[in-house]
Amino acid sequence: xxxxxxxxxxxxxxxxxxxxxxxxxxxxxxxxxxxxxxxxxxxxxxxxxxxxxxxxxxxxxxxxxxxxxxxxxxxxxxxxxxxxxxxxxxxxxxxxxxxxxxxxxxxxxxxxxxxxxxxxxxxxxxxxxxxxxxx
Length: 135
Fold this sequence. Notes:
globular, 2 domains, single chain
């Protein structure tokens, strides 16, 4: 009997926020190596073991550590901040949060998504963040 699988889906963008289309990359998860290529939208979608909790994505000679299944709910400020960081809006420390950096990240996200810019993590902003992030 095989263990139940899990899908890992990532959307890769370059420094300018453009999808990394048709780009070769390598994913290492639980001693398994997957040679992949992003699709026309810069996405990868691969089946991994359900027990996976971390991995490494290598793309363009850069190694990116991955935590799998470590995202708090969007209703929690820690979950919101992690999603903002994943989308490139927040670059500060996730442990010792700088309130001004967080506010600026939220404002930038709200502006880009054409929401009312308040810098506050209101329900509309959280819902849009969950939609844009994909979970």
